[in-house]
Specification:
The protein is mainly α. 73% of the residues lie in helices and 0% in strands. The protein is globular.
């Protein structure tokens, strides 16, 4: 048996697999519209869409990757497969993170057109750690609660509150930068490292917990 069967995982996700893709495609189309209708020429037009629409959508993939485990009550069956616990969680999530980043390539190409290669590298340095953090956070919440609805509620609630308050009200960790211009390396490095460390740590802990919480 394959450790991670990508076709099986995508089929099991059902319509949930297409939601982030629709969000990404819609964002690209809107960016083209902005460029044509309003003459947008700065990379700042990309950043808000990335932070509040595209980056959180990786959480939808995570949630639906666990649909068969918790909503269809197949946890015992799936955990009986002769694969490592990390293949149920961390390894599988990392594969979908890579797939998600591949889908973002057209947006990064647009970024090169609007701002140049150097700006896009800095943008990638901002975005990739955020994606890892969201994926890890939603994974550990879903595994602990054994319910994809809780993960979805946290994803929507956190993103909505952060967007409405600009990260100035709730006393929790603020993932987003709220920038409309590309940030410098010195502004990104610290938070980017924190996002990666916590995202990976959440995934590792999830791998350790998924069988113990069955």
């Amino acid at each position: 048996m394959k450790k991670i069967d990508l076709k099986f995982e995508i089929k099991a996700m059902g319509i949930g697999f297409f939601i982030p893709i629709i969000i990404i495609v819609a964002s690209i189309m809107h960016l083209f519209y902005q460029m044509k209708a309003f003459g947008v020429t700065g990379i700042g037009a990309i950043i808000p869409k990335l932070e509040f629409f595209i980056i959180p959508s990786i959480g939808i993939w995570v949630i639906y990757l666990f649909y068969e485990y918790y909503e269809n009550n197949n946890l015992e069956v799936l955990l009986s497969y002769p694969i490592k616990d990390s293949d149920h969680t961390a390894n599988k999530i990392f594969i979908f993170i890579l797939l998600f980043l591949i889908l973002l390539i057209p947006i990064f190409i647009l970024g090169v057109i609007l701002g140049g290669v150097n700006d896009v590298w800095l943008l990638i340095m901002q975005v990739v750690p955020q994606i890892i953090f969201v994926a890890g956070l939603i994974t550990i919440i879903t595994v602990i609660c054994k319910n994809i609805g809780v993960g979805l509620s946290v994803l929507i609630g956190y993103t909505s509150i952060e967007l409405l308050t600009e990260g100035k009200v709730m006393p929790w960790y603020h993932l987003f930068y709220f920038n409309t211009e590309v940030l410098g390396l010195e502004e990104l490095i610290g938070k980017s490292i924190i996002n990666i460390v916590f995202g990976v740590l959440f995934l590792i802990i999830s791998s350790k917990m998924i069988r113990r919480l069955k």
